[in-house]
Amino acid sequence: VAAGSGHGDSIEASPEVLFDFGLQGGSAVVLDWDVLSERLAVATTGGAGFGDKITFVPVMGDDLPPEDVTLPTGAGITDLCVGCRPEDEAAFAVAACTDGALRLIDASPAAPPSIVRTAYSHGVAATAAQLSPNGRVVASGSASGHVVVQPFNGSPGASPLPGLSRAEEREAAVTGLRYSLLRPDTLAACDAAGNLQVWDARALRHLHRFPRAHGSAARALAFSAQNSDLLISGGDDSHLMFWDIHSGNKIRDVAVDSTICALSYHSDGHLLAVGTADGFMLLFDLRMLASMSAPAVPLHHWDFHHQEQHRGGGRAALRAVAFAPPELASLLEQAFLRDASAGSGDEL
User: Fold this and answer.
1) How many whole angstroms separate alpha carbon 300 and alpha carbon 282?
2) How far apart, in Å, do the first and last CA atoms of the chain sit?
3) By the 8 A CB rule, do 84 and 135 touch?
4) Strand ordering across the sheet containing 126-131
5) Rounded to an integer, what distance in angstroms lies between the CA atom of residue 134 and that of residue 30?
6) Dist CA 129 CA 97 (whole Å)
7) pLDDT (0 to 100) of residue 287
8) Is 23 helix (H, G, I), strand (E, B) or coil?
9) DSSP string covering 164-197, please?
10) d(CA 177, CA 189)
C-alpha cells in the first residue's frame, strides 16, 4: 500500500510505502479492499509446500493479525472479489477456482472469514468472479467463455448470459469481469480472444458486443466512478481502449509501452493505474493523454516489487492493482500521512 503525489514529481519518483506485508509462499493473483473491516483481501496460489489461500490483512494498525481462508488442495484460485453491506454489518467474498468451483465466503467482522457455500456453475474451470455492488448477486466466467449470474444465497440457481452470436466471434476463456458502480446492473467481461461484452445482468441481455476489441487477449476492465458511460479495457496488445457503453462506440485507443495485466480507475475520474507483465505500475493522468500516435507517457513509472522474480529468473508480472475506496483512503491518509508533504494524497 503506497501513496504518491499526482502532481509535480519526476516520472521515476518513488511513492511513500504506507504498508508492506509479506505473503508466506505462493504468488499473489488478485486483491480487493474490504472496506467494512478496513483490510485487504489477497488471493495467493500455492508455491512448493503451500496451498491456495485468501489472506485478509488489516491495514489500519499492527495489533490485528491477518486471517487466512485456506482452500482445498488443487483448488487453483483465479479471481477474488469482496463486497460489503454496511447496513447489515456484513462482508462477503467470492473466489473463482480452476477446479470449477465458486467458493463463497462470509467475511463479516463478527467472526473469522469462512467458506459458507461452494457452487459448481460451469462444469469447467471458473476463471473470473465478481459481486454486484450490493453484494447480493455473483457473476462468474469460465474457461469455455460463458458467463452466468446467480444470487449469493444460491436460490434460484445460475442464469446464463447470452454470448457472441456468430461462429467467427466465438468466445474464449473469460479473463475479467466488472460491475459498474453507477449502473449496478451493468456487467462487462473480457476474454482471451480480445472480445468484450456488456450486459444488463438483471434483464439477462446484451447492451453491447465488441468482437476482437483487442488484437490479443484482453486482461483487465475498469468502469468510471464519475461517468456512467465510460469503460476502459487493457490487454496483451499493450493498448488501453476507451468505450462509450451508451452509444457502443470506441472513444479512444491509447498505446502503452508494456503488456497490460491489471487496471484500477481512481474514483476522481482522472487517474488510471496499470499493472504490467514486466512488474511495473504505471500511473496515468487521463487528462494528459494528448497523442494517439505514440505510446502514452505515464505520470509515474513505479517498480514496487523489483526484488520479486519468477522461479526461472525473470521479472514477475504485476497482476493486481487497486486504488483504495474513498472512505478507506481518507482513513489511510489520516493514519499514515500526517507528516507527508502537501500533495501526497493519491492512495493506492
Assistant:
1) 6
2) 6
3) yes
4) 126-131, 137-142, 147-151, 159-160
5) 21
6) 9
7) 87
8) coil
9) --SGGG----EEEEEE-SSSTTEEEEEETTS-EE
10) 4
The helices-and-strands tally (H runs, E runs) of the chain is: 1, 27
Nearest to 78 by CA among 115, 128, 36, 27: 128
Return the number of other C-beta atoms located less than 10 Å from residue 306's C-beta.
11
- Residues in Cβ contact with 326 at an 8 Å cutoff, skipping those fewer than 6 apart: 267
pLDDT at 7: 46
Assess contact for 233 and 273: CB atoms under 8 A.
no
CB atoms within 10 A of CB 296: 22
Instruction: State the Cα–Cα distance between residues 229 and 183, nearest whole angstrom.
Output: 9
Average pLDDT per consecutive 10 residues, the chain (348 residues; last block may be shorter): 52 63 80 93 79 90 86 94 94 97 96 96 97 95 97 90 75 95 97 97 96 96 97 97 96 93 95 94 87 76 66 73 87 62 44
CB 161 within 8 A of CB 207: no
Return the pLDDT at 171: 78
Give the pTM.
Answer: 0.89
- CA dist., res. 147 & res. 152, Å (int): 15
DSSP state of 147: E
Q: State the pLDDT at residue 301.
A: 87
Find residue 179's DSSP bridge partners: 187
